[in-house]
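Handout, page 2. Input:
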Amino acid sequence: MTEPLRVVIADDQALVRAGFQMILTAKGIDVVAEAADGTDAVDAVRRTRPDVVLMDIRMPELDGLEATRRILTGAAGEPRVIMLTTFDLDHYVYAALTAGASGFLLKDVTPEHLVAAVRMVRSGDALLAPAITRRLVERFTRRDPDPPAAHRDLATLTPRELEVLRLLAEGLSNAELAGRLHLSEATVKSHVARILAKLGLRDRVQAVVLAYRAGLINPMA
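Output:
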């Protein structure tokens, strides 16, 4: 039997934590801890070893960005982090994505979308579907030039893998990639896995960020 999905909720607003906890628990997702600031969030993650962390950006003591960095510099088996924000183009969200977060949600997310997002990142995918994510990356990559190392890493990719990376950065799902390239979804998944491994990336979000920073996608297109 599959073990229940384990989640930590970190937000300085008690009502937000309570609401998210109620939604997730009703769907059989185990909320193993709550935290009201970043320091408590880091401690809770180390203590409970969850699959997913819902992390507010703006918290006292230690903000969600620094808490995310500390969590994601741990040992293997670290959780996926979803950032929570009230601002859809917050520069802190972009910084969190580059630090390894697997996506972000607005706090007014619907219950259905919240549950789907938590399950999605636990399975190893990333929150790339909303057009807002692309706008976020487009906006902030223009201010944040990438060091030359990232460009050198791209030289390890085959022409097909570069093509997959470009399309992935446009927000295409595996099914859409398969249709565009006339490949099976299994083959697309293999290409994506090899891209992430070669570039040393956590997930699709980081691949999108790198593609923009390396100039594979024209933000003005």
